[in-house]
Each structure stands twice: as C-alpha cells, then as structure tokens.
Amino acid sequence: MLPDYCQARFGKDEQLKKAFAQQLGRSEFLHIHHHCIGLNLLNRAKVTLDKRLLRYTLQQAIGEFGYVLNRWPDDFPLTDEARRGKQSAEMMLQRMPKGR
Q1: pLDDT per position as a tens digit, 29-83
Q2: From 17, 21, 42, 80, which residue has the greatest number of CB atoms within 10 Å?
C-alpha cells in the first residue's frame, strides 16, 4: 500500500535503491523512510478505533512528516505530498473528541 520509493527504501534490492536515490537525489532519498513511515502511520490511523492509540499514531505521523519537511527543499517532488500528509494528520487530530 506504500509507494514504490518506499518499497525501494525498505527493501533489499540495492539496484532499486540506487535508482530511486539517483532519480530523487541522494540527500533527499536518505530521509525518505521518515516520509514512508508517516504515510504508513496515516494509513494505520484511518483504521484505528482506540482513541489513545489513534492520538499517538497521528502525533507520530505529524512528527515524521515534519522531519522531512524540515530537510527537503520546497521544490523537491514529494514535499507537497508530505505537507498534505501532515495536514491530514493534523486535521484528524483536531477532529478527535477531547479527553480520554
């Protein structure tokens, strides 16, 4: 359910990793696993019913997206996607009822 560049980053295929690193830029690809973790957490949050776990998952996703947003340039192809992911997690968190 994750994009190909996540499969490449987490997988064992060194040629595929090198290809994505070359395509996206080595310094940006170095941090891409944080973006992928953010995507995974956001997907997980969409099916989480436990409120405490949901809050934690969303907070973690926001942190992961924030990590790459602090390191990627504005013109990097995945920066807007990371912004949208962070905004989505923030909106989901804001919509949660307060309290336990």
Answers
A1: 999 999 999 999 999 999 999 999 999 999 999 999 999 999 999 999 999 999 9
A2: 42
Contact 93, 53 (CB under 8 A): no
Dihedral of alpha carbons 56, 60, 63, 69, sign: negative
- Write out pLDDT tens, residues 7-37: 999 999 999 999 999 999 999 999 999 999 9
Instruction: Quote the tokens at residue 35.
Output: 């973006």
Distance of CA 2 to the CA centre of its chain: 10
Q: Which of 52, 38, 34 is nearest to 89 (CA)?
A: 38
CA distance 9 to 76: 17
Q: Check if the beta carbon of residue 83 is closer than 8 Å to that of residue 72.
A: no
